[in-house]
């Protein structure tokens, strides 16, 4: 691996864009999205499979990424992927923080945390579970539901996060019509959970 990439001064960018957060606790808020290429989790239902192979995305100088993010009026950045914690994020986060930008991380928790985050959304995957040290750092737990049996996985993860962690069940997009009734019933019986929907897909924005 390129030494600059190892130090986090270069990152493989799959895409960058200004949009509205469509999922979880911060739904409806403006943000600048930085999507990194590369993921070793490999969920069969992933809606960003194009990001999996990092070799498809030439590394970009982080200073350039920061300069583009600063121009966005939102004042906040969502770092996502792929799996963003595949890479050291300290250099990126330090630059964003110096510019007064709030940083929100979307991660499966399968790699060690790096960088200074204002908010961590942990979205655990059964085929590559989070590292134990990530659970107490999560501000938000967002579990993707593909069927009723996934509720067990959701509760398993719920027992590992902080008591004040915000809990969300989100239907996997391609199965949303079949799983939403189960999620609704479950949340009614277990009101510590809330429903997250991919609202950006409903309103047709990135």
What features would you describe in this structure?
It is a single chain. This protein has 206 residues and is α/β, with parallel strands linked by helices. The protein has a single domain, classed as TIM Barrel, CATH 3.20.20.70. Helices cover 24% and strands 25% of the residues. The protein is built from 6 helices and 9 strands, in the order αβββαβαβββαβαβα. A 9-stranded mixed sheet has the order 3-1-2-4-5-6-7-8-9. Helix 2 runs parallel beside helix 3. It is globular and about 50 Å long. The two termini are 30 Å apart.
What CATH calls the topology is TIM Barrel
Query: What shape does the CA trace take?
Result: globular
Domain unit count: 1
State the strand order across the main sheet.
Answer: 3-1-2-4-5-6-7-8-9
CATH architecture: Alpha-Beta Barrel
- Summed over residues and divided by their number, the pLDDT gives a mean of 95
* Poorly predicted spans: none
Task: Give the radius of gyration.
Answer: 17 Å
Instruction: Name the CATH superfamily classification.
Output: Aldolase class I
Q: Strand pairing plus helix content: what structural class?
A: alpha/beta
- What is the distance, rounded to the nearest whole angstrom, between the alpha carbons of the first and last residues? 30 Å
Give the biggest beta sheet. Answer: 9 strands, mixed
Number of strands: 9
SSE string, helix = H, strand = E? HEEEHEHEEEHEHEH
Helix share bin? 10-25%
Q: Please indicate the percent range of residues in DSSP E strands (runs of 2 or more).
A: 15-25%
CATH class reads Alpha Beta
Number of helices in the DSSP assignment: 6
């Amino acid at each position: 691996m390129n030494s600059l990439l190892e130090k986090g001064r270069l990152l493989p960018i799959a895409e960058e864009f200004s949009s509205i957060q469509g999922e979880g606790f911060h739904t409806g808020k403006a943000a600048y999205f930085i999507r990194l290429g590369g993921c070793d989790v490999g969920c069969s239902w992933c809606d960003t499979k194009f990001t999996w192979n990092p070799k498809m995305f030439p590394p970009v100088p982080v200073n350039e990424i920061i300069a583009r993010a600063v121009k966005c009026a939102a004042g906040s950045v969502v770092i996502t992927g792929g799996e963003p914690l595949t890479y050291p994020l300290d250099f990126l986060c330090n630059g964003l923080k110096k510019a007064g930008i709030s940083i929100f991380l979307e991660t499966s928790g399968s790699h060690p945390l790096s960088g200074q985050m204002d908010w961590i959304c942990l979205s655990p995957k059964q085929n590559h579970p989070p590292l134990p040290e990530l659970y107490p750092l999560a501000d938000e737990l967002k579990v993707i539901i593909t069927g009723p049996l996934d509720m067990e996985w959701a509760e398993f993860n719920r027992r590992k996060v902080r008591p004040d962690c915000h809990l969300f069940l989100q239907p996997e997009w391609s199965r949303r019509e079949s799983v939403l009734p189960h999620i609704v019933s479950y949340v009614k019986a277990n009101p510590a959970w809330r429903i997250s929907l991919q609202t950006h897909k409903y309103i047709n924005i990135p």
